[in-house]
Amino acid sequence: MKLLVINGPNLNMLGIREPAVYGKADYAALCAFVREAAAEAGVAAEIVQSNHEGVLVDTIQAALGVYDGIVINPAAYTHTSVAILDALKAVALPAVEVHLSNVYEREAFRHVSYAGMACVKTYCGLGFEGYRKAIRFLAGLEEA
Ligand code: DQA
Questions:
Q1: pLDDT digit string (tens) for 69-116?
Q2: Which residues pair with 44 in a beta bridge?
Q3: Distance, CA of 127 to CA of 44 (rounded, Å)
Q4: What whole-number distance in Å separates Cα of residue 141 and Cα of residue 134?
């Protein structure tokens, strides 16, 4: 099984950006965590990060026929991007949404997730652990 892990804008600033919200670990640490979680689950995972909505759409489109599932933290585009929602619906790969923070306990504008409407599952507020659960869920190892 091959999974694509997509991270949206500002996640490359982990460790620097709002550590009280997102923690002190940096983006490299998140990537290392994801690689380890994928290896543990027995799946291959490629990780992509972009600050650009169109690049995220292109990345999702290019996943068709290449990957078996998508783990996506669209970051701020979660709450604004119909384009990312439509791309996820277009490829129709099983997708799991992840957020480091609990978006439903934050500002009201973070309570709407467009991308989430095309995802089979959401993990939020679990920090890095949400990515492990998302990978395990797609690998059929995590309880629903
Ligand atoms: C986030 C939550 C979003 O609301 C925010 O814009 C982010 C990160 C998270 O992982 O908690 O950039 O997706």
A1: 999 999 999 999 999 999 999 999 999 999 999 999 999 999 999 999
A2: 2
A3: 21
A4: 10
Q: Where are the alpha helices (DSSP H) in the chain?
A: 19-22, 27-41, 53-62, 82-91, 129-138
Residues with CB under 6 A from ligand 1: 10, 73, 75-76, 78, 99-101, 103, 110
Closest ligand 1 atom to the C-alpha of 102? 11
Give yes or no: 111 in active site.
no
The mean pLDDT value of the chain amounts to 97
Q: Whose CA is nearest to atom 8 of ligand 1?
A: 75
Rounded to whole angstroms, how far apart are CA atoms 12 and 107? 22
Cα(94)–Cα(91) distance, integer angstroms: 9
Q: Whose CA is nearest to atom 13 of ligand 1?
A: 75
Distance, first Cα to last Cα, the chain: 19
**Paired strand residues for 121:** 96
Other CB atoms within 10 A of residue 108 CB: 7
> Is residue 23 a contact partner of residue 14, using CB atoms and an 8 Å limit?
yes
Q: Distance between CA 48 and CA 129 in Å, rounded?
A: 18
